[in-house]
UniProtKB/TrEMBL annotation:
Source species: Azospirillum picis
Family recorded in the similarity comment: Belongs to the peptidase S58 family.
EC number(s) per entry: 3.4.11.19
Name assigned to this protein: D-aminopeptidase
Region (Disordered): 222-248
Highest taxon listed in the record's lineage: Bacteria
Length: 367
């Protein structure tokens, strides 16, 4: 049955297991929603072989089509089926919320975003331009019956409503929820994870927050911040007589939000550092993995109906940008660990399941 619960999926987060990353301090929630105005909602499908869902990220509470945040995308490895990134890179803005779901539900989620935009802007495609829906995906097929095409427009709308309609949307559920329901990571149960870092610019506090959809990594190659290697209980690299590791496949989507003033070029430079965090946890962005980052800033917005010939945008002094590079790397690393630490057991298609990292950590069997 679908669920739109936004409270945490279990009490565990990365820091409850001592898995803090880097020297910068987290925001009050240690979540992407530490960036003021950003909200997250989930719709989770949990019905036998159907283990999937939708996650919605709203950059601000206003009309995104009319008030477009500056945005950028960066593709580390492009084995993916995301929609809308080409226009984000060309025009440098977002004009819809971001939806995350499984690979074969991208089109359905995009249609839901178009309907959502038209409902608030009846002139779309008639008196003004069309709209660019942004949907990103990972393949949850091993645990979810992806061929069932179970995600509907109504499920996507429920995730959008959950993000927009409740104060609880500031508390981001992590683990096996929303789009993360059927995801796997390093042979463990994966899913949704989040983290944030506090920044100070010109004496004022800002935040950079990250949300990941973690569905990547070879079993046995997960690395914790202290250097421990953590294989899942069923992983036995010595069982491969050829000495060849299995190919890395899967995907990871990294969504970054900040209220620091960045232009499109600077934002792309910042989100590229997601790759540092992914490498730290043990990924090398293999041939079969779609590793994609998308970021936006709420500090710079472009009005759809702007009449002036020129507009003013602020940008960061690039002698200060290393702070954001560091925050992006650390928050991405911790968000992946957060997804793993929070994930609870899921039994899906044909009885398939994945072990949970929390069980290995509490048993003390990591090496």
């Amino acid at each position: 049955m679908p669920s739109t619960r936004n409270s945490a999926d279990g009490a565990s987060r990365a820091r409850s297991f001592g898995l803090a990353c880097g020297r910068l301090k987290p925001g009050p929630r240690n979540a992407i929603t530490d960036v003021p105005g950003v909200r997250v909602g989930h719709c989770t499908l949990d019905d036998g072989a159907v283990q999937t869902g939708v996650t919605a990220i709203l950059p601000h509470a206003g009309n995104l089509y009319r008030d477009k945040p500056v945005a950028a995308a960066d593709v580390l490895n492009g084995f993916g089926k995301s929609l809308g990134l080409m226009q984000v890179e060309e025009l440098g803005v977002l004009e819809t919320p971001i939806l995350l779901t499984n690979t074969l539900s991208v089109g359905t989620a995009a249609t839901a975003l178009v309907r959502h935009a038209i409902a608030g802007n009846p002139d779309i495609g008639r008196a003004t331009a069309t709209v660019n829906p942004v949907v990103m995906e990972c393949n949850d097929g091993p645990l979810n019956d992806i061929q069932a095409l179970a995600v509907s427009e109504a499920h996507a709308a429920s995730a959008l409503a959950a993000a927009a309609g409740s104060p609880e949307a500031a508390e981001v559920a992590s683990g096996a929820v929303g789009a993360g329901r059927g995801m796997s990571c390093f042979g463990f149960k994966g899913g949704i994870g989040t983290a944030s870092r506090r920044l100070k610019l010109d004496g004022a506090r800002h935040h950079l927050g990250v949300l990941v959809l973690a569905n990547f990594g070879r079993p046995g190659e997960l690395r914790l911040p202290d250097g421990r290697r953590v294989p899942p209980p069923s992983s036995d690299p010595s069982s491969d007589p050829a000495g060849e590791a299995a190919p890395e496949k899967g995907s990871v989507i990294v969504i970054a939000a900040t209220d620091a003033p960045l232009d499109h070029r600077q934002l792309r430079r910042v989100i590229r550092r997601a790759g540092v965090g992914l490498a730290r946890v043990g990924s090398f962005w293999g041939h079969g993995s779609g590793d994609i980052a998308l970021g936006f800033t709420t500090a710079n917005r472009l009005g759809h109906d702007e009449a002036a010939d020129t507009v003013a945008l602020r940008m960061l002094n690039e002698r200060r940008i290393d702070m954001l590079f560091e925050a992006m790397a650390d928050a991405t690393q911790e968000a992946v660990l957060d997804a793993l630490a929070a994930a609870t057991p899921v039994v899906g298609r044909d009885g398939a399941t994945r072990p949970c990292l929390r069980d290995v950590l509490t048993s003390g069997s990591s090496s």
